[in-house]
Specification:
Layout (H helix, E strand, L loop, with lengths): L1 H8 L7 E4 L2 E4 L8 H27 L23 H13 L1 H16 L5 H8 L2 H18 L5 H9 L5 H28 L11 E5 L21 H15 L6 E5 L10 H21 L15 H13 L5 H26 L2 H11 L5 H15 L7 H15 L4 H4 L2 E5 L24 E5 L11 H34 L8 H39 L4 H18 L5 H23 L5 H28 L6 H10 L4 H4 L14 H7 L1
Antiparallel strand pairs: 1-2, 3-4, 5-6
Helix pairs in contact: 1-2, 1-4, 2-3, 2-6, 3-8, 6-8, 7-8, 8-10, 8-11, 10-12, 11-12, 14-15, 17-18, 17-19, 17-20, 18-19, 18-22, 20-21, 21-22
Length: 667
């Protein structure tokens, strides 16, 4: 019976120990066994049941995972796990922790052969330490299957189960975790040192996101990454194959953090560093592979061997150490960030590029856009046609040559016309020409040169374009008001009608508001923020700090220009539309009919309503420390307290009689 028991403990059944309900138990109705002996044997047989479960799990998932095929993938049954490198590493770790159990069974078998009268209590005592371990491992496997854990999420489950008060159980889980960490460290080595994402089974916490490409990067066989002692020759061969497959413009792909795969004991800040380093190394290596590239050095300054040794030492540690792990990541990040700073700031003349962007997107060359507005006014005041974009670019080049703009800077920019311009305010009155004209669909495109594309991403260029549209709209309306003033000067000696004084007073108030808005945007926002950005770039040699400063610069521009504050943005857009309608009416009609005078009165009422609303919004938040830029703008408008004393009205006008201000004077 002792031999039958040892076989049952090894997962094999016989005549005495049988399989009932997926559990190895003593066969019923055996007359030579006492009930207490049956209870003792059944308790020991639980180890055999667990051991059989472990062996079945290892046999099922330790095989070589099949590569993803081009055929339609078959759905994985709910009671099975997906193939992958981490589940194979788990099988390797599980098999390694069972070695001690097998050794105990071998020793017991030798003792049984020497002493046939060996008591069951001796076998029970020898196997007692495995009960809590096997119970915990069984719960672990059940949890993995129930939750269908895949990839690095397995590390999170192991980390959670390792928080245990039983030392032997904790050490067992940590031993398995260490082996599973070997896969992660090899993926990290390939990603951080070579820029290769060896993750064909979607298991890593860095994943690839396509940017609307027609073909995917060819999958490579990296199944050898499952073993902790992978030869360096095999790793180099896998890297070589992956490099060849991804050498074609990897900028068509972007990378991001997969939160579902990121273990909780790795902070997001560390994952961001891992993402940044891998993207930078991949970008540089792909560029270096081109024969025409002048960049032949290593972005890691030939320190790959040192960094690889650091990861190997981390791999040998029995417990994961976040300080040591982050220190190794920081060493690589510091090296990459400094090299990128030199590459972007010095070699690619980042400061010159920023000044060029400021000249075009932020209207730094005001004379250029004054000439452009003058050249393209007849093209963009009507709805766009298929030829509008070409004609506008011709007008833009003519304006640039008129102000002696360099062709090199001009070649990097191109004006665009949206095919389907989206109106910001639906249901507008038909008099509002600005919403249906080409101005509402005008944008600008910038040709980004390598390696500045890592700083000037598409989302960054979209923010620049948003600023460009807003600033150009302000500049255009301001110029129209100035042209109205020129018309006023030409007509001041003519016999004025009854409503002329109010008309020109309205234009003056509009110009006052627009001039102060323009001064605030150019001086208080653009120049001050741009100066702070340049100073930050010149005071550091870390590319990440440069990128953070640039992102902060754009965020400040958007916030201080009220593009992120919906009430103020909507109010300013309404004021610009009203001013544009006023200028359009004034320039088209020298002598106004009664209908046009009525329309002018509605324009005045709209301007008064929106300017009063703007004053109330600014007054309500200007004292708050969270919006100091609103206080600055309010100071520009209300420097002499006229705005405040008039109750937020720049003026109240009535065109069918005398104005309110005239009535006050007569009284």
């Amino acid at each position: 019976m002792h031999h039958e028991l040892l076989l049952a403990l090894s997962g094999y059944t016989g005549s005495i120990f049988v399989l009932r309900n997926n559990s190895i138990e003593v066969a019923p109705d055996l007359p030579f066994l006492h009930c207490n002996e049956i209870a003792l044997l059944n308790r020991m047989c639980k180890l055999g049941t667990h051991y059989k479960q472990f062996q079945d799990f290892i046999a099922k998932y330790s095989g070589k995972p099949s590569l993803p095929s081009t055929e339609v993938p078959k759905t994985t049954p709910e009671n099975e796990l997906k193939d992958g490198l981490y589940i194979r590493a788990l099988c390797v770790g599980l098999d390694s922790v069972l070695d001690s159990y097998r050794k105990v069974l071998l020793r017991l078998e030798q003792e049984v052969l020497r002493d046939v009268h060996l008591p069951l209590s001796h076998i029970q005592q020898a196997l007692e330490e495995f009960h809590p371990v096997f119970t915990e491992l069984s719960v672990l496997l059940d949890q993995l299957i129930a939750r269908r854990v895949h990839g690095c999420h397995l590390l999170e489950v192991l980390h959670h189960r390792s928080v245990c008060g039983i030392p032997h159980v904790r050490d067992t889980i940590l031993q398995i975790t260490q082996i599973c960490h070997c896969v992660m460290y090899k993926q990290l080595t390939a990603w951080l040192l070579h820029g290769m994402l060896l993750d064909k089974y979607k298991e890593f916490y860095i994943h690839q996101v396509p940017r609307q490409v027609e073909e995917e990067v060819k999958a490579q066989d990296v199944a050898s990454l499952n073993t902790p002692d992978i030869p360096d020759k095999q790793l180099q061969e896998a890297l070589k194959l992956t490099e060849e497959s991804s050498s074609s413009e990897s900028c068509q792909w972007s990378f991001a953090i997969n939160p579902g795969m990121l273990p909780s004991y790795i902070p997001t800040r560390v994952a961001d560093k891992i993402l940044f380093v891998g993207e930078a190394v991949q970008m540089f290596e792909n560029k270096k592979q081109k024969s025409s590239s002048k960049y032949r050095g290593s972005i890691l300054q030939a320190q790959e061997e040192e960094f690889s040794s650091d990861f190997y030492r981390l791999q040998q540690q029995s417990m994961f150490s976040l300080p040591a792990f982050e220190e190794s990541i920081d060493k690589i990040r510091g090296c990459v960030a400094q090299h990128l700073w030199t590459l972007v700031v010095e070699d690619s003349d980042l400061l010159g590029q920023l000044n060029t962007l400021k000249d075009f997107f932020l209207l730094g060359r005001g004379e250029l856009f004054l000439a452009f507005i003058d050249h393209s006014q007849h093209l963009l005041r009507v709805p766009p046609t298929p030829t509008t974009e070409h004609d506008v670019n011709v007008a833009f080049q003519q304006a640039a040559h008129k102000v002696l703009m360099e062709d090199e800077a001009l070649s990097m920019f191109k004006l665009t016309i949206a095919t389907k311009p989206q109106s910001k305010t639906a249901g507008k009155k038909p008099e509002n020409v600005g919403q249906t004209s080409g101005w509402s669909s005008l944008g600008m495109a910038f040709s980004v040169q390598w390696p500045l594309h890592i700083l000037f991403t598409q989302s960054v260029l979209d923010k620049y374009n948003t600023m460009f549209k807003f600033l150009l709209n302000v500049k255009r309306v301001q110029l129209e008001l100035q042209q109205c003033w020129a018309t006023q000067m030409q007509q001041k000696h003519h016999m004025s009608q009854r409503w002329d004084a109010n008309k020109w007073r309205l234009r003056n108030n509009m110009a006052f508001l627009l001039d102060n808005l323009q001064y605030y945007l150019q001086v208080d926002v653009l120049e001050s923020q741009f100066t702070a950005l340049i100073q930050k770039i010149q005071s550091t040699r870390d590319f990440e700090e440069v990128r953070f400063a640039h992102d902060q610069f754009l965020a400040s521009l958007m916030a201080q220009s009220f593009l992120l504050m919906k009430p103020v943005r909507h109010c300013l857009n309404e004021i610009l539309d009203v001013c544009h309608s006023f200028c359009t009416l004034l320039m088209q009609s020298v002598t106004m009919t009664a209908r046009e005078i009525s329309y002018m009165e509605r324009i005045a009422q709209g301007f008064n309503r929106q300017s009063s609303l703007l004053f109330k919004i600014l007054s309500g938040v200007r004292s708050h420390q969270t919006s100091p830029h609103l206080s600055q703008f309010m100071l520009r408008l209300d420097f002499n307290k006229f705005y405040s004393q008039s109750g937020g009205l720049l003026g109240s006008f009535t065109y069918r009689g005398t104005s309110t201000q005239d009535q006050n004077k007569s009284s």
